[in-house]
Design goal:
The protein has helices at residues 11-21, 30-37, 57-70, 124-133, 150-156, 163-166, 202-205, 239-252, 265-274, 308-321, 334-345, 347-351, 369-383, 413-433, 449-455, 458-471; strands at residues 26-27, 50-52, 73-77, 95-99, 106-110, 115-119, 136-137, 173-179, 185-188, 214-221, 223-224, 228-236, 257-264, 288-296, 327-330, 357-363, 388-394, 399-405. The protein has 498 residues and is an alpha+beta fold. The protein has 4 domains: 11-99, Uridine Diphospho-n-acetylenolpyruvylglucosamine Reductase, domain 2, CATH 3.30.43; 106-224, Uridine Diphospho-n-acetylenolpyruvylglucosamine Reductase, domain 3; 228-348, Alpha-Beta Plaits, CATH 3.30.70.2190; 355-433, Alpha-Beta Plaits (2-Layer Sandwich), CATH 3.30.70.2740. Strand 8 (173-179) and strand 9 form a beta hairpin.
């Protein structure tokens, strides 16, 4: 937190805010406010001058215009599931939280055109279920999909398990409606796949983490619903073998590999300890395991011989003969497939109950993953004896969630914190050496703001600052996140926060 309290907005300002959103739109219960002022893991605690929940775009615009007039800062917020504190107030007093939770309507579904128009507060799982009800598919899949909101997904350019086949959230967007920092509404809700009329404004706001405006509505792409899905859990001798299995699978499946997740045995151990109802997919322990899914929009053939499951089974048999796969099991039904995915998606929740750990959201080119893991494991364990690395993540698109458990015997986060600072520098420096990214899908927020300045070039930072100044000259939108307009601005040093 800053050393001194920043003067909060006046009572008169707060009454004007109440007049805009009404009693229903003001969050005043202390417990309810605490939800909006604390990050999902409880690591970052903030304090907002007010928490408001507008019900319409017009109310959002009026709130933003009022804040712009009075110089009050705004923290746009979705489901509060982020991992870099992008949606948490960090200035201690002069920010309001603007939650989109009440703007949760599905406005239109067009199965013929494969589009869906939604408000920013719609929960991701609701979008998935709505698409399925129309025999369509929305592919963004996250562990937090039952509570994260599409506005937050768009603002952070969320990734997930299907990026390998469908792309990031940015790839799902056809049009946006955005409230600009001065309160004007930009209506870009055009369901066009081709629109070559100047700068693509929507791409400015996707991934900007609320620093350039407030996304209020979106036109999304939806896809044919997969009808023939094969899901396998397999053990491999090393990451290089997993890479070769993936490369061959893309050919064997007619490029229908929709997910390929690398899983470490230590991470699986934690899930089995802390998540009720989970069980090991394979009988024996293996250091390296992979969750792979193939899917097709064609119905399963009546004879079953040419469907995804027998093709995957034949391919894995070939891999076992070559020594690339040590053991494997293919889900026999949808329930077993869901059980596999539940294991994968429970890593974060299990981590909350385990020994102190820190996790990095990084990416390198897919073919560099094995070399990166080998080099990173060696360097980090040498620096922190007893450290337990367990890299895992979306191997198909190069995104690793590189987690390090504290040495055994270390039970307090405070005791592990100095080591986390050391690991920050080792891991991020190595990512730079491998021409990777220090944030693959979680964003920058306040947690990586200073790290971004360390690893992006002066030219890139200048361009980002110029965009920020042009759209938000008063600096009211989500200050202390992503980019500092003034390089000398004091910010919370959240390096090592993980």
């Amino acid at each position: 937190m800053p050393d001194t309290l920043i003067a909060p907005p006046s009572t008169a300002f707060l009454e004007k805010l109440r007049a805009i959103v009404g009693e229903r739109g003001m969050v005043e219960d202390p417990q309810a406010r605490a939800f909006h002022e604390t990050d999902w893991r409880g690591y970052v605690l903030g304090r907002a001058a007010a928490v408001v929940k507008p019900g319409t775009t017009e109310e959002v615009a009026a709130v933003v215009a009022l804040c712009n007039e009075h110089g009050v800062k705004i923290v746009p917020q979705g489901g509060v599931t982020g991992l870099v504190a992008a949606g948490i107030p960090v200035r201690d007093g002069d920010e309001i939280v603007l939650s989109l939770a009440r703007m949760n309507r599905i406005l239109d579904v067009n199965p013929t055109a494969y589009t869906m128009t939604v408000e920013a507060g719609v929960v991701l799982q609701t979008i998935q279920e709505t698409a399925a009800a129309h025999d369509r598919y929305f592919p963004i899949s996250l562990g937090a999909q039952g509570s994260c909101m599409i506005g937050g997904n768009l603002s952070t350019n969320a990734g997930g398990a299907t990026v390998l086949h469908y792309g990031n959230t940015r790839s799902m967007v056809l049009g946006l409606e955005v409230v600009l920092p001065d309160g004007r509404i930009w209506d870009g809700l055009r369901a066009l796949k081709k629109d070559n009329t100047g700068y693509d404004l929507k791409d400015l706001f996707v991934g900007a983490e609320g620093t350039l405006g407030v996304i209020t509505k979106a036109v999304l792409k939806i896809f044919p619903r997969p009808k023939d899905v094969a899901t396998a859990w397999l053990a491999v001798p090393e990451p290089q073998a997993a890479l070769e299995v993936l490369a061959g699978a893309r050919i064997a499946s007619d490029d229908s590999v929709t997910s390929c997740e690398l899983i470490h045995e230590l991470g699986l151990d934690g899930i089995l300890r802390h998540i009720p109802g989970t069980q090991r997919p394979l009988q024996e322990r293996h250091t390296w395991q992979v969750l792979m899914e193939w899917s097709s929009t064609r119905p399963i053939p009546p004879d079953g011989e040419s469907g995804m499951r027998p093709r995957l089974e034949a391919y894995l048999a070939e891999c076992m003969e070559k020594g690339l796969v040590l053991d494997a099991v293919i889900a026999q039904n949808e329930a077993q497939a869901r059980a596999f995915w539940h294991l994968r998606e429970s890593h974060a929740e299990a981590g909350r109950h385990d020994d102190p750990a820190c996790s990095f959201d990084i990416s390198v080119a897919v073919e560099k993953i094995p070399g990166f893991i080998e080099a990173c494991n060696a360097a980090t364990v040498a620096a922190v004896p007893g450290l337990r690395p367990r890299p895992m993540g979306h191997m198909g698109d190069g995104n690793l969630h590189y987690t390090f458990s504290a040495p055994q015997g270390v039970k307090a986060r405070a005791e592990f914190a100095p080591s986390v600072k050391v690991l920050d520098r080792i891991v991020h420096d190595m990512v730079a050496e491998f021409d990777g990214s220090i944030s693959a899908e979680h964003g920058i927020g306040s947690a990586k703001l200073l790290e971004l300045e360390r690893y992006r070039s002066a030219t890139e930072l200048d361009v980002m600052r110029a965009i920020k100044k042009a759209l938000d000259p008063k600096g009211i939108m989500n200050p202390g996140k992503v980019i500092r307009v003034d390089p000398d601005e004091t910010v919370r040093d959240a390096t090592g926060m993980r």
